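Example record used in the benchmark description.
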Amino acid sequence: MTYEQVKSLKSEDFKRLCGVRPDTFNQMLEVLRCLRRAAPTHSQPKQKTGRPGKLSLEDQLLMTLEYWSGAGDAPPPESTVPTFI
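Model output (structure tokens):
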């Protein structure tokens, strides 16, 4: 799932999916954006080389949190899984 698909979920469904509430996710995202904008500590700034990433910062954070919470392979909250007795 991408962040665009997940951001419209209810707070409890969002937390079930990635382990944090949406406001905590946004705070984490702001910290990552600040770290990305921060200049390197060396006197010479490092040039970014290689191919640009395909995932947005939001999607990268969401994927990491899903992996850490173990919910990355769980079905989406709106789907129902049939139970067998």
